[in-house]
Design brief:
It is a multi-pass membrane protein. The protein is mainly α. The protein has 20 helices and two strands.
């Protein structure tokens, strides 16, 4: 159990760049994992206890905070095609870190901030995470294309890092909220972007000349990239699975804020404490790690369509546990709330991760060489729009059913409608290709054409401790 993960990491490092592996740990583990988990819990308590907003409005605000992730193609084009003082990567890491550090510090220090201003600060924190995420995603997409046999392993590594970081973040979030308060705890969100600033200074990168002709070539390359993206997305092998992933995310209407308010209500709900709410999410992070392990050990060799069908089916069935919990049927059959919520959270997170991992592998296999960074950002943008529709749809559902801070009468109906949509998604699996997860999905002539069009492709790496490491 100890040596096998170490050997796995050594194998990845030997076939890929060790500094790339380190970058995955920094961005996915510390940024998306730890900070993302802390952000989720602390922000929920901030909206509920400090701003005192209704759950439906908070659900809308959560969707707005997701907008920077929809703009990932823009961040990808900026970092790929518009260098600053000859550098393509460093300035954007530094800018992302500054935005996140300032936004988190402002919302933590101002006690009388209007909820609209606080929302803008939260958008800044989210933008910081999204911009920092774009570069590492481009590296992952390229490595997945060049070494297709490692594509599932790379997604497993990202899943491990993200889930392990989230586990630590969730475990500490309830403690911080209880002892520091939700607003002061928001200051801890400045840690990750501050380290992102440092990362921007230590990234090893060749400096370009920045001449007039080069700038003209950059603009021409942007136009060529956009045309290539349009041509690629028009292939049935690309738009059909992309459409499935979009619809699978959009139809997965989330009612998280309604659940959170119900969790902490002393009359209608189980009245979980702040610490236990963090423990619930931490258990979910452990379950996510279990889902990654199950995928990595037993499922990464299955065909896309077969795996996604059964994963979606299990995910829909796990959602029924939410309905049982909200209706309090668990008490009728003699299962205490504290025990049943562990069962529900574990089942949902494991099946959710098993459902998500092949979607990410599928996305990397749809990217052509030469524009893999920007095109992967485009696919992630499509996915983010689907997730935004899911969050906004949940807000509309909670508002229509009149689920408020104190009235949870129709929360069970919202959960029932959500579960029906999850089962309906099974009818769309025909859009997913039948091929294996290590097979190329693009037409061979188009992949080869893009590969030959690569000009002056630079490699991003961290500064090695001893000497220069070849990418």
């Amino acid at each position: 159990m100890i040596t096998q993960p170490i050997q796995w990491l050594k194998r990845l490092s030997s076939q890929l760049n060790p500094t790339f592996i380190l970058g995955v740990f920094l961005i996915y583990g510390l940024g998306q994992g730890f900070s993302g988990a802390l952000f989720k819990v602390v922000a929920d308590y901030y909206w509920k206890d400090v701003q005192k907003l209704q759950p439906s409005l908070v659900q809308f605000y959560v969707g707005i905070c997701f907008i920077p992730w929809i703009l990932k193609p823009l961040w990808g084009i900026l970092t790929d095609a518009f260098p600053v003082r000859g550098y393509r990567r460093r300035p954007y890491f530094i800018a992302a870190g500054v935005i996140g550090t300032v936004s988190a510090s402002v919302v933590a220090m101002r006690g009388d901030m209007p909820h609209s201003a606080a929302l803008m600060c939260f958008v800044g924190v989210s933008a910081s995470m999204a911009i920092a995420d774009v570069t590492i995603d481009a590296c992952i997409a390229r490595n997945s294309i060049e070494v297709r046999s490692l594509a599932p392993d790379l997604q497993s590594l990202c899943g491990f890092c993200s889930a392990a970081g989230a586990l630590v973040g969730y475990l500490l979030s309830g403690f911080f909220v209880h002892h520091l308060g939700s607003q002061r705890s928001l200051g801890l969100l400045a840690l990750s972007p501050a380290l992102t600033i440092l990362l921007g200074f230590v990234i090893y990168e060749h400096r370009t000349s920045g001449s007039h002709n080069e700038k003209k070539q950059v603009l021409e390359r942007v136009g060529m990239t956009i045309r290539s993206m349009h041509q690629t997305i028009m292939y049935p092998q690309v738009w059909k699975p992309s459409l499935y992933i979009f619809l699978a995310l959009a139809l997965n209407v989330t009612t998280h804020e309604g659940h959170f308010y119900w969790y902490t209500d002393s009359k209608a709900g189980p009245a979980f404490s702040q610490e236990f709410v963090g423990v619930i999410y931490a258990i979910g992070a452990v379950a996510s790690i279990m889902g990654v392990i199950i995928y990595h050990k037993a499922l990464k060799d299955l065909p896309f369509r077969k795996l996604l069908y059964y994963a979606q089916l299990l995910y829909a069935i796990s959602g029924v546990l939410d309905l049982i919990f909200v209706l309090r049927w668990n008490l009728i059959i003699g299962i205490p709330d504290y025990f049943f919520v562990v069962i529900e959270e574990t089942a949902t997170r494991i099946t959710g991760k098993i459902r998500w991992m092949p979607m990410m592998v599928l996305s990397t296999q749809l990217c052509p060489l030469g524009i893999e960074g920007t095109f992967f950002a485009l696919l992630m943008c499509i996915d983010s729009i689907g997730a935004l529709i899911s969050k906004m749809g949940g807000g509309v559902l909670l508002r229509v059913l009149h689920v408020t801070r104190t009235d949870f009468t129709n929360l069970w109906l919202a959960v029932l409608l959500r579960d029906m949509l999850r089962f309906a998604t099974l009818a769309l699996v025909f859009l997913v290709p039948k091929g294996g997860q290590c097979e190329g999905l693009l037409p061979s002539e188009y992949s080869e054409k893009n590969e030959t069009d690569i000009v002056d492709e630079e490699t991003l790496e961290l500064v090695p401790i001893k000497g220069k490491t070849e990418a």
